[in-house]
Amino acid sequence: MASEGILLGMGNPLLDISAVVDEDFLKKYDIKLNNAILAEDKHLPMYEEMANKSNVEYIAGGATQNSIKVAQWMLQTPGATSYMGCIGKDKFGDEMKKNSKLAGVNVHYYEDETTPTGTCAVCVVGGERSLVANLSAANCYKSEHLKRPENWALVEKAKYFYIAGFFLTVSPESVQLVAEHAAAKNKVFTMNLSAPFICEFFKDVQEKALPYTDYVFGNETEARTFSKVHGWKTDNVEEIALKISQWPKASGTHKRITVITQGADPVVIAEDGKVKLFPVILLPKEKLVDTNGAGDAFVGGFLSQLVQEKHIEECVRAGCYASNVIIQRSGCTYPEKPNFS
Q1: Residues 338 and 73: beta-carbon distance below 8 Å
Q2: Assuming Cys at both sites, which of 98, 296, 323, 334 could form a disulfide with 66, CB separation 3.0 to 4.6 Å?
Q3: CATH code at 90?
Q4: 275 in any annotated domain
Q5: DSSP letters spanning 125-179
Q6: 203 lies in a domain?
């Protein structure tokens, strides 16, 4: 059994506005499938356009929050997970609070009085997704909130931490505070590369956090972008995973393990100078609903076993199970109980 508050996540809580669109819509707003970007002015009208579609769905999301909710679902121990991020004092924010409490996650949101809750347009074409995030309130998280005694208590209580790379664009100082705490107390600190733009445009803050990471998650596109940005001159995902695992560490307590997913191709695990490949559960195309949240769900499943000190094989198996469930549903949602044994 996982103890209460064993896993803490911090990130950008966003309400997903998910709709099936067409290629013309992607062209109109200049967006690519299987990518994640921050909204620019040219993207702002798309939220309204999507909200008016008959097939639109609103789902509480945000990468880290998705992973934490999936870990919570897999663990089935109320309050095993906690989460912090910033929302607005509005209808969407209330929706988010209700949704997270129902999921069993102990949320300590920072509520911004003046900025609306962040949203993420999830554009689905043929089951593949493109994400355009309008951070709004999520961008207003302050480390002062983290330092409040009732919130820092969650940090003290947790033994495992997960923060998606997206949070580096918002509060790198919060990431650093938690990372340094984890290193000082021999706890496990995990992060995600999250998106090519993080590796490209937030390279400095990413590099500052990297030495503290005990597990680095990512997908093949992010790994290749990371390699390119660091001048490694290789596109080979296995080589890149190894190089990331060998990046210098701030604390010698835990070795670093790199975990790279590749869609339907095997998961790459790099540790101790070796690479292992784990096949995923293949899904017939007709069963695929959308890939939104697939990577987040993989991390959530993985962490649900990691916090129970299971072997890496079990962590990967749980990650593959969770992502397989999520891609057969709209957004990062799941049935009432997992049937993972």
Answers
A1: yes
A2: 296
A3: 3.40.1190.20
A4: yes
A5: ETTEEEEEEE-GGGGG--HHHHHSHHHHHHHHH-SEEEEEGGGGGT-HHHHHHHH
A6: yes
pLDDT tens string 125-155: 988 889 999 999 999 999 999 999 999 999 9
* Domain tally, the chain: 1
Residue 296: per-residue pLDDT: 95
pTM of this prediction exceeds 0.70:
yes
Catalytic entry in 112, 214, 290, 296: 296
Please confirm, yes or no, whether 214 is among the known catalytic residues: no
Q: Is residue 174 part of a domain?
A: yes
Q: What is the mean pLDDT of residues 73-83?
A: 96
Burial 127-160 (b: 16+ CB within 10 A, else e): bebbbbbbbbbbbbbeeebbeeeebeebbeebbb
Residue 99 φ/ψ, nearest 5 degrees: -60, -45
- For the record, the structure tokens of 192 come out as 């995600």
Range of the domain at 217: 7-13+61-117+136-327
Strand, helix or coil at 273?
coil
